[in-house]
Design goal:
This protein has 388 residues and is an alpha+beta fold. It has helices at residues 19-46, 54-60, 77-90, 92-112, 115-126, 237-271, 283-311, 317-342, 353-363, 370-382; strands at residues 132-135, 151-155, 158-169, 176-183, 186-193, 199-203, 215-226, 230-234, 273-274, 277-278. A hairpin with a 2-residue loop joins strand 9 and strand 10.
């Protein structure tokens, strides 16, 4: 199975992209094939992230790619989505790393921080010289972030933070953290250098999913930061606006994982011989591949439309919920069907199917579970809030 990766494009969705968008996508696709795929297997086994590739990602302009100024690429929403698609074709951990850096860390600084903070952090983050993490989720507060226990208390010209955050991507490698806390009767965000006294990132080990990703617990014990570290936004509006940006990238990214699954399953079916013929000739195998191609194509079109809405300013958070929910479900089902096509070989890491499947179990859960996004959509459709 040494043939180069070939992305599915059954309805010529390529024609809907601009020349620049296709060029950007193809550049990232080539980089993933040439630089990332040769090393992902060993990093997945070792549960490590290929940090040596971070400078190359910075040179490619993938960090905060849709942001403007401060060394950011200022790309279209569709182009930034296609970057996520190609990164996740490699591994969800790779796309997560880039999404957290750009959507969850750079975006709140770009949108809510002072000009001094923007100048201090964004150029170096865009270049991959500073790595960020996003501290919202706590061990007991995932779908209900408003119940967080982390607190920030004013003390003169400073705030003192105490609490912990859990399931934090990039947490133990980050140089800067965006931390959300209960403060003065509302929720506020803070930009915190991770070398600040009392701040600690502890890796979460023994994961079956997102093994090639730094997942950590953040512990804050009397972490003292100046008042200037506070972001200019109050309530859940702040963190949820960041999550909307990240969920957008996930919607595209999961399509990439599904395309990887389809490509591997389709190629395997042509060389795997049973009963004296390739299994691609069997109706049941073809039906699985057709289902995968059908759902991938629908997701491609949904993401393209979402991207155009993002670019013209009409995209809402509930639109992103539908795309994130659909893409993650579709991709996970594609991996399950693909594993079935591969048979017993599908459970080994000689093939990528099981790695993508395990990763997607996290992707369908984080940044809003499948069910929570269903309730967000349901609230928009009916006007009735079933979450609260």
């Amino acid at each position: 199975m040494t043939d180069p990766y070939k992305a599915l494009d059954y309805l010529a969705v390529d024609e809907l992209y601009t020349d620049e968008e296709r060029m950007i996508r193809d550049t990232i696709r080539s980089w993933v094939s040439e630089r990332f795929m040769p090393v992902i297997e060993e990093h997945n086994r070792a549960a490590t992230f290929p940090t040596d590739l971070i400078p190359e990602l910075g040179e490619l302009g993938v960090f905060g790619s849709s942001l403007t100024g401060y060394g950011c690429a200022g790309l279209s929403g569709v182009a930034s989505g296609l970057i996520c698609q190609e990164l996740e074709r490699g591994d969800s951990g790779l796309r997560s790393f880039v999404s957290v850096q750009g959507s969850l860390c750079m975006f709140p600084i770009w949108a809510y921080a002072s000009e001094e903070q923007k100048q201090k952090y964004l150029p170096k983050m865009a270049a991959g010289q500073l790595i960020g993490c996003f501290g919202l989720t706590e061990a007991d507060f995932g779908s209900n972030p408003g119940g967080m226990l982390t607190k920030a208390v004013a003390d003169g010209d400073h705030y003192v933070l105490n609490g912990s955050k859990y399931w934090i991507t990039n947490g133990s490698m980050a140089h800067v953290a965006i931390v959300w806390a209960q403060c003065e009767g509302t929720i506020k965000g803070f930009v915190i250098d991770t070398d600040t006294k009392g701040f600690q990132g502890r890796p979460i080990k023994n994961k079956f999913s997102l093994r090639a990703s730094d997942t950590s617990e953040l512990v804050l014990e009397d972490v003292r930061v100046p008042k200037s570290a506070m972001l200019n936004v109050e309530g859940l509006k702040g963190p949820l606006s960041c999550l909307t940006q990240a969920r957008y990238g996930i919607a595209f990214g999961a399509v990439g994982a599904a395309q990887a699954a389809f490509d591997e399953a389709c190629r395997y079916s042509k060389i795997r011989v049973q009963f004296d013929k390739p299994i691609a000739k069997f109706q049941l195998v073809q039906n699985k591949l057709v289902w995968m191609a059908n759902e991938i194509t629908k997701a491609q079109l949904m993401c393209w439309r979402l991207g155009r809405m993002k670019d013209d300013g009409t995209m809402k958070h509930f639109h992103v919920s539908m795309a994130k929910r659909n893409s993650c479900w579709m991709a996970l089902e594609c991996c399950r069907l693909g594993r079935d096509v591969l048979g017993a070989n599908g459970i080994t890491d000689e093939y990528q199917m099981m790695r993508h499947m395990c990763n997607l179990e996290s992707v369908i859960t984080y940044e809003g579970t499948h069910d929570i996004h269903g309730l967000i959509i349901g609230r928009e459709l009916t006007g009735e809030d079933a979450i609260m």
